[in-house]
Structure formats: structure tokens, C-alpha cells
Amino acid sequence: MDRRNFTKFAMSGLAFSFLSDSIGRAAVPVTAPLPAAAPSPARPIVQPIAPKPYASLLEKAKAALDRHGDAFTLRDRVAIADFAAPSKELRFHVVDLIGGQSSSYLVAHGRGSDPAHSGWLHSFSNEPNSLASSSGAYVTGEQYVGQHGRAMRLIGLDPQNNNAEPRAIVVHGADYVGEDHIAAWGKCGRSEGCFAVAPHMLPQLLGLLGSGRLLYADKIGVEA
Fold first, then answer.
1. What is the pLDDT of residues 184-210, one digit of tens each?
2. What domains, with CATH codes, occur in the chain?
3. Ramachandran region of residue 67, left (φ > 0), alpha (ψ -120 to 50) or beta?
4. pTM of the shown model
């Protein structure tokens, strides 16, 4: 074989080898990477509904509502004064027994219940001139205008608060109850045994209370 033919033959073989290699590579399918699996959606975490801090006191109020049933003309809502909490907290609650809604307010306790003015109620008393708060069930009475302005009378239904009327224990407004007073002193001032509330909240509160409903005051878990 002469050099010209050998060179033609070698180049043909090289071309065939290159073509074969290209065809071989083209015949191998190219597999695209599979998309990553989408993560399963996380199940929502259902948090249990925390009981209201006054839940135990509300149960006592409901028991009093049944015990003194004839004394109340309205049983749709009740008021509870949770005197286990300090005076700087919203511890006077009006609870709708039908819908479950509630609204909360500041309320003072009597100076005889807190002689050192710590902001905490330490003891109850039903004695005249004790200047202390009394525990137990009350029925809300008529509204009137007196030395504290607009106010609501209360009638004590239990042995530990049956002097409420002669002691003039009522719901009224007082300047020593409110956010400004708490900001300055860290607590509300003290009443003479009345349920004193912030003056600007009094109309709303008296509107919710009305006449003939239960107001229940106590402190749970602490000896008074």
C-alpha cells in the first residue's frame, strides 16, 4: 500500500472512530435529576386555652347565685372582685354567663384590709368602722348621687358582709384608682371598704352591673 492510500485509509479510520465514539455518547440517555420532594406541611400546634385567672372565684360566684337565687332579678352576668390579686391589676371582672365574654377593671380595697398600704388585701372585716373590705355575695341596688358622685348601693347577703348597708359599702368612682395613680405609686389608693373604681370607667361599669345582679368578692387560696 502506497503512502497516499495508507494516509487516506488511516484518516478514514480515525474519522470512523471519532464518529463511532460520538454516536455512542449520543445514544446514552441523559437523566435529569429528580426534583426534591416538597416537605409535608407541618401540622398546626393547637395550644390549650388557658383558664381565666379568676375561674375558681367564678365557680364560687355561680354557687352563690344558686344559693341566693331569689335575691337576683337578673342572672345573665355577674361581677367578681378577685382580692387575691394586688390593687395594681385589673381584678374586678364583669362576666357574661351566656356568651362567656368578660370586661375587667381596677378596684380598690379598704384601708382596714391593708393597714400598711402594701397594695395587697390582707384581711376582711364586716365590723362597723373597720374601714375594711368584706367578702361574700352582694346584690346590686339602686344608683344615686352622694358624696362620691354617682354610685351604686350594695346589699350584703352573707353573714360576713350583711353590714354592707349600715356601713354604706357601695360602688363609686375615686381619683386614687387609675393608671396614672398606679404609674406614680405602683398601686391604687385605699377606700373605706367600698368598691372604688376609676372615675372614667364608672359609667360603663354601672351600666353593665345594673340593679339586681350578683357582685361576689373573695380571695382564693389565701387565708384572709
1. 999 999 999 999 999 999 999 999 999
2. 54-218 (2.40.440.10)
3. alpha
4. 0.78
